[in-house]
Amino acid sequence: MKLFVGIDVSSKNLDVCFLDSEDTRLKETTYPNDIHGATQMKEAMLAYNGQFHYEKIMVGMESTSVYSFHPAHLLSKDKDLQRIGVEVVVQNPKAIHRFKGLFEEDKTDRIDAFRIADFLRFGRYHKTVMQEEKYVALQRLTRSRYQVVQQLTESKQHFLENLYYKCNTLTTDIDTSVFGSTMMELLTDSFSLDDIAAMDLEELALFLQKRGKGRFKDPDQLAKDIQKATRDSYRLGKVMEESVDMVLATYARLIQTLKKQVKELEKGIQALFEMIPEAQCLTSIPGISDVYAAGITAELAQIDRFDTEAQIAKYAGLYWKRKQSGDFESERTPRVRSGNPYLRYYLVEAANSVQRNEPVYRQFYLKKYKEVPKYKHKRALVMTARKLVRLVDVLLRNRQLYTPERSV
User: Which residues contact 38 (CB under 8 A, 6 or more apart)?
Assistant: First the structure.
């Protein structure tokens, strides 16, 4: 006989159902979601096992991000539970939700715990391997970097939106980024458009050269372009101008702060990534930096969790559903919208860098780029990321470095 323990996890409680293989509910109760509650649940499992001597004990819960992390790791690492062969699995909430949909019943935490145990009893679950601490620690850093980068991108979009109110021709007339410290100071703190338009050209070029610390290739030409843009742009009323200037200054400070945060997180990622044995496997691929390699490694953790590279691609959301019925085979196979967004992000970013540095991937990218009339870059990049998954799987699984293909 087997024992199945279903746990419905929330921030405060662990609703638990103890169900045996004969569909008998031995116990339904609620424990606090803390170390004391998890310990009580462990003692209950040990007591039932001492009474019935189960051939197998399965503990299952939904993956609820931070809420399920502590109970899952505590139960899977407990030596007393390991001694009697307890297996802990964390399942995709969508799979549990589809299973619950087969039954017409109320929605309560107790019922959810029972259905999770029942799901385990049917044996349709996927075995999971608890990630080691170093991978979880690295994942905290790489996911935080991803989130900060998203905030940075959004802040830049808002900055450009408000910049258009102030100087609508600037981004099209100048050949440099408006997000550099010098350009932001010029646009937000130092001068109005009329001041820039009336400024002596040599004085403006000297300002750019001094504040830019000599980084501009041709400060004289840049000064001409900036003056032309300020003269050609619309003028705002005083009230509107003050409002836009305040918004631009706010976003300028926010962008600089977010840039510093990204750099700090990348330093932490690089320091921790060096402690992981397979670090050099991915960084040996031309174009993949420590940050991209760390993001991929942190989400995959132990590569043994996946049987094939196709499972990795599906886990990342780089998967296209097949549609077939009788003799009909659909040519339109849309990519699934599920999967791990963090892994997909780092794979796509890495693929974009690899295709610029590795000839084989560059040829593949260009081939896919020319196949369709719309969304060329986006489609080609996703297809290149899918190709990269095969290489990542081989290198991590075999613990080997990348060897470029020989040209004939």
Answer: 14, 31, 70, 71, 74, 75
DSSP-derived letter for residue 322 is -
Strands (E), 63-111: 86-91
H or E element, residue 279: helix 279-283
What's the sign of the alpha-carbon dihedral 197, 201, 202, 207?
positive
Q: Which residues of the chain have pLDDT under 70?
A: 129-130, 189-190, 330-332, 405-408
**Residue 123 burial (C-beta neighbours within 10 Å; 0-12, 13-18, 19+):** exposed
- CA angle (307, 81, 95) in 5-degree steps: 45
10 Å CB burial of residue 166 (0-12, 13-18, 19+) is buried
Give bridge partners of residue 87 from the DSSP assignment.
58
Q: How far apart are CA 204 and CA 220, in angstroms?
A: 8
pLDDT, tens digit, 9 for 90 and up, residues 375-387 = 899 999 999 999 9
For residue 29 the two structure tokens come to 């109760």
| Maximum Cα–Cα distance across the chain | 92
From the list 107, 131, 81, 122, the residue with the least C-alpha distance to 8 is: 107
Residues paired with 17 in a beta bridge = 6, 28
268: nearest Cα among 133, 374, 141, 363: 141
Tens of pLDDT, residue by residue over 315-348, are 999 988 777 777 777 666 778 777 899 999 999 9
3-state secondary structure of 284: coil
As a whole number of angstroms, the distance between CA 182 and CA 83 comes to 64
- In the block, which residue shows the tokens 């003056």? 227
How many Å apart are CA 388 and CA 126, to the nearest integer?
A: 25
Q: Is the pTM of this model over 0.70?
A: yes
Give the type of residue at 365.
Answer: Y
